[in-house]
Design goal:
By secondary structure, the protein is of the alpha/beta class. The chain is built from 11 helices and 20 strands.
Length: 464
């Protein structure tokens, strides 16, 4: 019987869709991600639907690992309940050795049942890349050792408790997690393996080894067409739940010089990840496992970094909801580009089909295997939501965004002619039919996804 393919799953933190050289960004250096695009299939319109928390990565990773839709998560994704089969759990139950590395933002219990092994496990959202508090793998599933730290000690004396056992001082998170993956790859394996390697980069604080910082001169970085000194209107970012943290990473008004510096650091972090992706590919090749390994590279959400006057991901512009998605390996067409709409939650059922594994009944995502093989799209529209503040919908050409705190600023964009979402067509008479069609579709999709006023994490967007 032919051995099932291995899976190396690499998840970046805050990497936007347009940050890969081979897919059109001429300023960034990503030779190993380029190699994945050349030897595999790139999905250029992969999305998250938004988030029910200012920490967008938490619901995003919960959707990815459970295959559940946004409004069917437990809370905002802080845990994945036992009734929802996780991706690692499903592969483990089907004969895979599952190994979890790096960031797990969805509770200790769901991690424990997902993986048969692991190392350098970080339970949290973000940290200093050079001193990450991590855990070894525990077979009993108990992760209860707590250390007290003061992460923001330069500005306050507020300590916090973190589930952790050790810190490898002065070793960057990207290298820490990559080393754990390589060590696992180099071990003998009787079963096919599923390695889940979840990075902390390029999430801020954006620090990286000096050789990568020197790759980018801020003065030579191009500003995006939709750079703005400030967002055109207030849409209600709530400092009470930390939603303004990302926006305070740069001063107001945004300056071209400061945004160029942020972009340069962002690119440097991604190039550092890219180099370590290369190290993992080399380990697979060196151990004779590359030809039978499906490599998946994606991100949990995008990031503005100066676009629309924003710095974070607490919005529904494409720069914050579109992510890279590369698949390479057995059964994946080489050098292919797919513009089909997919959600990140669709990866789980797709990998099941690629590996001949039954899709769990709890999974609500849609497999895009037909998109891989034939370019057929399973999704014609995308429903978008950010907390109680914004709702949106995209069809194959247009996008509508409605704001709870500022309904007069509803936006309509022609993505074919205005991919940077600059020109609002909502009030133009020539687009009345488009507007009305999308507004009706928004309400219809609301009901399909059960986005209702009782959901405590959206705080009744739909009630007046």
């Amino acid at each position: 019987m032919k051995k099932k393919p291995n899976i190396l799953f690499i998840l970046a933190d805050d990497q936007r869709f347009d940050t890969i050289h081979a897919l059109g960004n001429e300023e960034i250096h990503t030779p190993y991600l380029d190699w994945l695009a050349e030897t595999g299939t790139a999905f250029t319109h992969a999305h998250i639907p938004g988030g029910t928390s200012g920490a967008v990565c938490m619901p995003s990773r919960a959707m990815l690992n459970s295959g559940k839709t946004l409004f069917h998560l437990y809370g905002a994704g802080e845990e994945i309940p036992a009734c929802d089969r996780t991706m690692g759990e499903q592969f483990q139950k089907n004969g895979y050795e599952t190994f979890g590395i790096g960031k797990w933002h969805n509770g200790t219990a769901s991690y424990a049942r997902s993986f048969s092994g692991g190392d350098e496990i970080f339970f949290g959202g973000m940290w200093d890349h050079w001193n990450v508090p991590v855990n070894a793998y525990h077979e009993d599933g108990k992760y209860d050792h707590v250390v007290r730290t003061t992460p923001n000690f330069l500005h306050c004396n507020h300590p916090m408790d973190t589930i952790a056992e050790r810190i490898t001082a002065s070793k960057h998170s990207t290298e820490l997690f990559t080393d754990a993956a390589i060590h696992f790859i180099e071990q003998p394996h009787e079963k096919p393996f599923f390695i889940y390697t979840a990075m902390l980069a390029p999430h801020d604080p954006r620090t990286m080894p000096e050789e990568f910082r020197k790759m980018y001169d801020p003065e030579s970085i191009s500003l995006p067409e939709n750079f703005m000194e400030a967002h055109p209107f207030d849409f209600g970012i709530d400092p009470a739940i930390g939603e303004d943290r990302d926006e305070n990473l740069a001063s107001y008004p945004r300056t071209k010089q400061e945004v160029r510096r942020h972009i340069a650091d962002y690119y440097a972090m991604i190039s550092h990840i890219d180099a370590n992706v290369g190290r993992m590919i080399d380990a697979l090749r060196r151990t004779g496992q590359l030809e039978n390994t499906i490599i998946v590279y994606t991100g949990d959400n995008g990031l503005a970094v100066g676009r629309h006057g924003l710095m974070g991901k607490q919005n529904l512009y494409d720069h914050s909801i579109r992510v890279p998605l590369l698949l390479s390996g057995p059964g994946i067409p080489a050098g292919a580009r797919r513009d089909a709409y997919v959600y990140l939650m669709d990866v789980f059922p797709t990998l099941c089909e690629l590996c001949g594994i039954e899709i769990p009944a709890s999974v609500e995502g849609k497999s895009f295997l037909s998109s891989i093989e034939q370019g057929v799209s399973a999704r014609k529209t995308l429903y978008l939501a950010y907390t109680h503040l914004i709702r949106g919908i995209k069809d194959q050409r247009f996008k509508l965004l409605r704001y709870k705190n500022n309904p007069d600023c509803t936006q309509l964009f022609d993505l074919e002619n205005d991919p940077n979402e600059i020109h609002n067509l909502y009030h133009e008479e020539a687009y009345r039919t488009v507007r009305d069609t999308l507004e009706a579709a928004l309400v219809n999709e609301r009901d399909i996804y059960e986005d209702n006023p009782d959901h405590r994490y959206t705080r009744a967007f739909w009630t007046e």
